[in-house]
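sorry for the late reply, my laptop died twice this morning and i had to redo everyting from scratch. anyway the thing you sent over, i finally got around to it. pasting the sequence first so we're on the same page, its 449 residues, then the predicted structure underneath. double check i copied it right bc i was rushing
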Amino acid sequence: MTDTYLNLVNAGFTKKLAKQLGLPRPAVLRRYRPGAPLVPGPVLVLHDDASSSDADALAAQLLDWDLDVRRHAPGDERYGAVVVVLTEVGGPEALSTPLLALGPVLKRLTPGGRVVTVSRPASSAASPAVAAARQGVDGVLRSVAKELRGGATGNGVVVAEGVPVGAPSVVGALHFLLSGRSAFVDGQLVQVTSGAGALPGDWDRPLEGTVAVVTGAARGIGAAIARVLARDGATVVAVDVPAAGDALAKVANEVRGSALQLDITADDAAARILEHVRSRHGRLDVVVHNAGITRDKLLANMTAEKWDPVVAVNVGAPLRITEELLAAGALGEGSRVVCLASTSGIAGNRGQTNYAASKAGVVGFVAASAPALAEVGGTINAVAPGFIETDMTARIPFATRELARRFNSLQQGGQPVDVAETIAFLASPQAAGISGETLRVCGQNMVGR
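ok and here's the structure:
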């Protein structure tokens, strides 16, 4: 679906007119393109005094990516990104110097620039003062993200106590958040809880040699997921209902994978997935539970016919299939399970009590399943899209659709590829230290989190 307003305010006479009238001007986002620079300009690394050694380590990593790294900010230079390292901050007063140094630089971020904080969780702080400072970083990051313009985003990496900043998932999260792959991820904090994982030999094809199952792959977000996973090197098994057979075959052929027509709510769904994967591809590395349906109605008018299928498809099937694959030993070392949640399951949405229940259920299921996946050397996470431009959102009434598009920090809807890029990151080897988390792809809501 095309955002006509975004196109108008970014081209020709209408761009000039919108600027003169002071109209909102959502930017064209910087998305991933093979061969494009990781960051569109120099990267400035800031830190408090206590975090200097971690800042040095991350600056060295940035240099390994052939980036132009600066440690001080002259008054006239433009920057593609700023990394603010606050891992050892000792109290709230220590935030002043690095964050006030960040302020003037924000005006000199290039379009599509990035601000990334690196910090530790408040929950593991040794004192109330340290906890206050660490929680303060979270508040600063979310607020800065709402101040940025020109398609720039602000996100954070929160590194568990004892995990070095050079751990694969810290480095991997930093790479993802600096890149165009994270275009519609804004105001979010990626929690790295362990030092597990490995960096890819090729950052453009981190899934080389893996086999990934994607449910609901015939169209929309599911088709985008299949394409991005295949682009990143995975062999894709595209799964959808028999009624979508033609579209499913088209996607599978496009990505040079295989198609499996299947109702995921069937009792033998997990067994059929496993049989197909083992007979065609010999292994299973990634499972993406994308399939989902809506049956919207106010709760006062809700019926079992509208409630039960939504819960069955959106959370019941992923829960059962994951448990059965685990029991069958199909998920092992390096396995990744990624589920589709929704911001409706986090914040709620009028007329979607059934959908919100199912998607909130996904968040709970993912968090509770992380220990079981960890036992076999795998991870499980969720991605929660906000307003994404799909055929489904195209059916929303015009006024409601426009409000939903503009009511985030980036002032636009996301694209299916934005969800797919985040899923591909969580499916990658460098994300092994991230599990049980839900990462929002929503452009950051303007009010609240």
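The longest strand covers residues 109-119.
thats about all i looked at so far, will dig more tmrw
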